[in-house]
Amino acid sequence: MTNRFLALALFLLLPVAAQAKGPPVRQAPGMVSAADPRASAAGVEILKAGGTATDAAIATMLALNVVEPQNSGIGGGAFLVHHDAKSGAVSTIDGREAAPAAANGHWFYANGQPLSHFAAVPGGRSVGVPGDLRLMAMAHQLHGKLPWARLFAPAIRLARDGFVVTPRLHNGLNNFGTHVDAWTKAHFSGPDGKPLPAGTLLKSPEQADLLARIARQGPNAFYTGPTARRLVAAVNGAARNPSKMTLADLAAYRAKPRTPICGTYRVYRICGMGPPSSGGIAVLQILKQLERFDMTKLGPNSPVAWHLFAESERLAYADRDMYLGDADFVSVPVKGLLDPRYIASRSALISPDRTMAAVTAGTPPGAPPRIKATNLDIPGTSDLVVADRAGNVAEVTTTIESYFGSGVSVDGTMLNNELTDFDIEPVLGGYLVANRVEGGKRPRSSMSPTIVYGPDGKVRIALGAAGGSTIIAQISKALVAVLDWHMSAQDAIGLGLLYAPGHTAVAEKGTQLEPMVPALQALGESVQIAPLGLKANAIERVGGRWVGAADPRSEGVAMGEDGSVTNIVRVGAVPNRPAE
Hints:
Layout: H1 3-19, E1 31-34, H2 37-48, H3 53-67, E2 77-83, E3 90-95, E4 109-110, E5 113-114, H4 117-120, H5 132-143, H6 153-161, E6 163-164, H7 167-176, H8 182-187, E7 201-202, H9 205-217, H10 220-223, H11 225-236, H12 247-252, E8 256-258, E9 261-265, E10 268-272, H13 279-290, H14 295-298, H15 303-323, H16 334-337, H17 340-347, E11 382-387, E12 393-399, E13 409-410, E14 413-414, E15 427-428, E16 431-432, E17 450-453, E18 459-466, H18 470-484, H19 489-494, E19 498-499, E20 504-508, H20 517-522, E21 526-530, E22 535-542, E23 545-550, E24 557-560, E25 565-566
Helix pairs in contact: 1-2, 2-3, 3-5, 3-6, 6-9, 13-15, 13-17, 13-18
């Protein structure tokens, strides 16, 4: 990110925020962390106008819809974890996309054979009924304060007046945009047909008009009427993998309040999303399986600590693949997976001086018969977190799945390919797969929005990440770094990751883990070195104030109501090294 890029973001958004008149700041100034500075500034504008954390989170999501269309937007879905400062209650909302009613176990088959994951992504059949706007509306009704239309103002302004194309947007289309439809390719390309270079000012009038209609009319302007008809026509008429979505599918979609997944790690209480997210359970499993080890004494420079972390990951991912799915459709043994005796039995498989020869799912109490799944998550997605001056916190992970989703657009907005998060084959080894495609079902997700409470009952840190199934490992790593290794949230996010969803672990290239590879191999680890495409955001409470953090691998920043900005010019920097 360049200083010119950040300056333009502030020019476009913060002057308006400064003119907003809200109540005086009596407590810690609010904070927003998001994957793009224009989105963070949109959230700050709403905080300065007197909005709640939820109001600001909605405005941030809408701004990301404009400036980061390759990763998120109202054509996708989201999960939200909310902390209410007044009551101390934590709540969650499921805005995950849903399969059309016509979907069945052979949704991704052609000529009697299952499609490969990558063949299933482009076109209409991978598009789930979007959930973002329904989630926003429910969250606003429960926790909002400012008028609905006010939350759209920053995003509409960005779309109508224009925004600067970032390197991530340019590279996303250049490297991963071969599947996009004609409108998308033309919109994000120059007269020469090549992706617009970074630094180009881009206007999105179609998107501005769509957002303006939704601001005036509410979410039904998207789920019913002309936009809904165009959406259904686009996915059903797609040149590749046409769908069978109906207007009734769109009109019937509802966001759902879910029971939070909460548990303890040492003296902390950790809360996240339940199914269809696998994140809340898997993060807690990883941490609880490590709890018997003295991670603080080992420290972040210990190969043994990272080996233990990798082994715990393997066990949690194995259970995730076996049991997790949409609990409205399949029996998910949530209590059993987090049962202390079961966790202890899984942790006992971990040894400090050797690597497990093989890892399989366990049999938690209440487990139905299942067989290991083979679903592949693709790195994408975006995360944001907001804390307001009253102490409310909103942590949101939002996605359209792959870069530019399905490649299909409607009214200037990209549509997701979330249905490829289902397992393509419905039966394996004679058993029905928990995460198989079914009409109306929501696919399993790795998204892991998380809020952590300290021993005093106050929010200690809220965080989330993007990057497919690496999300679970990113969140677990950051929490070990903050809670055990006493790192700041910023340093914890920037710390390199050892990602081990199976037998072979990946040590993140260019980080502190590279020199540890020989020592890890001596412990029996099979390790590859590779980049991991990570992206995380966090806000922590330090000394009674909110302190933001944004991933040094990303274009993101954290901005406070007091004018503080974290992670200004660190794009492309190697974590834990000076910015280049």
